[in-house]
Design the sequence.
């Protein structure tokens, strides 16, 4: 019988291979042991949670989640309603210069005239032009994350929009404050202060909270004649039922009780840009806006019923210059809008949870008027519109 011989070289190779495999096996064994420890910890936590559920109710601290898109905070100016929409994949934010200066929104291939805005359950808009749809003097710090409504959801909670609507609601009042300031290239400067207190006492059994905000920014812009200036102040008071869970989350929360928000704000904005609106003539255009907004929003929930009602007033004064080197009063407008809406939803129980349905009743009225130095022809200077619907 022949003996099989192994050379020293091949034996060294085998030993080296075993040496390389052994650490991998040790690593796999360590991973399995760690997985066993994690599983045991999860089982222990589950048992503890079950024991606590039997003995007492554990209230978790409130966690406010913000920034549902990347780069929600702008670098050049104070944040506006357009800031977080810059990187929202369902919205095409078409900005001139930077979005906080002037921006139009288009949803699902629509235009800025076919897109809408719902603020605290109220459909708001500008009767003169969709260019001013986002000109609302409310800080995003007062609001929760935005949702984009399209299709059937738009029919249930939108108005005056066929492409889609952006909806935002008031967030919970945050205790504390924020003070921010900055400076950068092109003579950019900015500053903002926000103060809030969620418990200032109670009135008629309702807990009172409030927050205020003031922001300012200005600069020369990244291009010639692209200068801008923005100043904004706003304040909100919230009345919250002491047994209510409404308003405890970034978008209002849920539970029995009610909440009422009172808001007032003012904003002044100046923007300059070549081909701001009237492209492609190469004209150095400017637009100066003064926007005021006052609104009240009330919502509640009890048992299987939920309701919401509110009203608002908005005024927008704008002075547009087609050529800033030859200023005139040819394009001066004042637009007033008053709106109110209400909705009632009832949860209808079925024999099973899958068979449960919901009845929604919704109605509203919106009136607008305009005074203009250029829009003088035709019969239109004011109108009143209404909407109503029942959805099952």
Sequence:
């Amino acid at each position: 019988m022949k003996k099989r011989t192994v050379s020293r070289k091949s034996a060294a190779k085998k030993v080296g291979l075993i040496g390389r495999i052994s650490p991998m096996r040790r690593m796999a064994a360590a991973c399995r042991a760690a997985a066993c420890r994690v599983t045991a910890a999860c089982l222990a936590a589950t048992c503890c949670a079950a024991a606590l559920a039997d003995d007492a109710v554990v209230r978790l601290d409130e966690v406010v989640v913000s920034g549902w898109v990347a780069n929600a905070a702008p670098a050049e100016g104070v944040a506006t309603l357009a800031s977080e929409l810059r990187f929202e994949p369902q919205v095409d934010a078409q900005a001139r210069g930077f979005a906080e200066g002037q921006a139009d929104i288009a949803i699902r291939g629509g235009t800025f005239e076919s897109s809408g805005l719902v603020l605290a359950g109220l459909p708001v808009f500008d009767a003169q032009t969709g260019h001013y749809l986002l000109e609302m003097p409310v800080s995003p710090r007062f609001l929760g994350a935005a949702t984009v409504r399209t299709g059937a959801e738009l029919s249930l909670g939108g108005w005056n929009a066929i492409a889609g609507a952006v909806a935002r609601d008031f967030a919970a009042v945050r205790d504390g404050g924020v003070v921010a300031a900055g400076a950068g290239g092109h003579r950019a400067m900015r500053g903002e202060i926000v103060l809030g207190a969620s418990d200032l006492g109670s009135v008629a059994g309702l807990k009172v909270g409030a927050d205020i905000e003031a922001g300012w920014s200005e600069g020369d812009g990244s291009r010639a004649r692209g200068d801008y200036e923005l100043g904004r102040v706003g304040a909100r008071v919230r009345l919250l039922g002491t047994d209510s869970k409404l308003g405890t989350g970034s978008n209002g929360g849920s539970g029995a009780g009610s909440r009422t928000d009172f808001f007032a704000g003012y904003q002044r904005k100046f923007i300059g840009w070549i081909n701001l609106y009237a492209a492609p003539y190469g004209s150095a255009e400017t637009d100066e806006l003064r926007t005021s907004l006052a609104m009240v929003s009330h919502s509640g929930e009890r048992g299987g019923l939920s309701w919401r009602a509110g009203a608002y007033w908005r005024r927008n004064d704008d002075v547009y210059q087609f050529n800033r080197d030859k200023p005139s009063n040819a394009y001066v407008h004042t637009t007033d809008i008053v709106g109110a809406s209400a909705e009632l939803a009832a949860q209808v129980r079925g024999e099973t949870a899958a068979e449960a349905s919901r009845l929604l009743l919704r109605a509203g009225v919106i009136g607008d008027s305009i005074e203009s130095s250029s829009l003088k022809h035709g019969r239109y200077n004011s109108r009143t519109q209404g909407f109503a619907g029942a959805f099952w």
Notes: The chain is about 15% helix and 45% strand. Residues 96 and 252 are 33 Å apart (CA to CA).
